Amino acid sequence: AIYKIYNKKRYDDRAAMVAAIKAAEGCTDCGTNNPVVLDFDHLPEYEKSFTIGSNITSKGMTRLFDEIAKCEVVCANCHRIRTKERR
Q: What is d(CA 57, CA 59) in angstroms, rounded to the nearest whole number?
């Protein structure tokens, strides 16, 4: 039981940190800053090691920050547009 509590706290703490990064940056393209609609867009010049959102607790903090550094924050709409334009 204590393990589940620890894991939930760890997830909640990291999710809050990621949301704060997104809100502080805002969408690079349109400026919206609601973290609920913001994504990390991996830039084409960097190799994507993992998806940030689904790995916030399975990777160490250093690896997480290194992966975030390969990205720009964009809203879901702008992310879809960027992805389409890159193809």
A: 6
DSSP conformation letters of 6-70: HHHHHHHHHHHHHHHHHHHH--TTT----GGGEEEEE-TTS---S-SGGGTTTS-HHHHHHHHTT
In whole angstroms, what separates CA 86 from the centre of its chain? 20
pLDDT surpasses 90 at 1: no
Of 13, 16, 15, 34, give the one whose Cα is nearest residue 25: 34
Write out pLDDT tens, residues 48-80.
999 999 999 999 999 999 999 999 999 999 999
Identify any residues that bridge with 39 across adjacent strands, giving them in sequence order.
74
pTM of the model: 0.88
